[in-house]
């Protein structure tokens, strides 16, 4: 299929890729991606996918028969997105792709040549059933670059009044999330909030520890240790980037719920987290902690692989 007006097939990088189907959720994702592309001086690629569910599948049906109709539909959707994006970005920095297939698979494929891939939390048509567990879930789980799900009823950006919240433990992916979060905070001139969830609550699952001698002291020691490690990380970030406003918080309770609640309390502009972790984020896999944060957070969530 031909893209509306422009294609990225001849470029080496897609920059920021955003899935767009004209739905309210994809419009929020587009708005977020446009502003982020402007801030970071990146190319923007608009991807529209005609879902396989829209093509007849009886017998040996050839979707090419309807290629012209699909092409016209994509051109209309992408033209709308381009009109929106050109209000902020130079036209030469905007590219478009139209494809037939699975929206999630196409976005994941595009992510191999992207700096960032962005989806809305809900969509229709090309970004089919954009609920978590569908396109957004699959993209955040399998993207080859950082993936952002834009949440909420309006677009929120990191800035002076909306901090970047980084969920941290000492796993490899959390280290990557920290590096990314620092860069975003610097670019957005936003405070950086580093949060970790201690494992103290895990002892409550073992009733036999209730009478354990020194149990309370052990819990306090665990809590302090998490705080000390987090503060060391914050101090290193502050030394490496003078002027960066860094805060730390040790949270209790379930990791996903705790991070999402913290984002609400702090009016966060972005939550950044690794796709997998350990320690305070035991078993951090999409479907558990990351899934919970993406589902509950009031702002965009970036998952770093």
Automatic annotation (TrEMBL):
State the family named in the UniProt similarity comment for this chain: Belongs to the universal stress protein A family.
Which lineage do the record's taxonomy fields give for this organism? Answer: Bacteria, Bacillati, Actinomycetota, Actinomycetes, Micrococcales
The source's superkingdom equals Bacteria
**InterPro entries cross-referenced by the UniProt entry:** Rossmann-like_a/b/a_fold, Universal_stress_UspA, UspA
Q: Which residues form the UspA domain?
A: 16-151, 163-305
This protein's name: Universal stress protein
Cite a single Pfam family from the UniProt record: Usp
Q: Cross-referenced SUPFAM superfamilies, in alphabetical order?
A: Adenine nucleotide alpha hydrolases-like
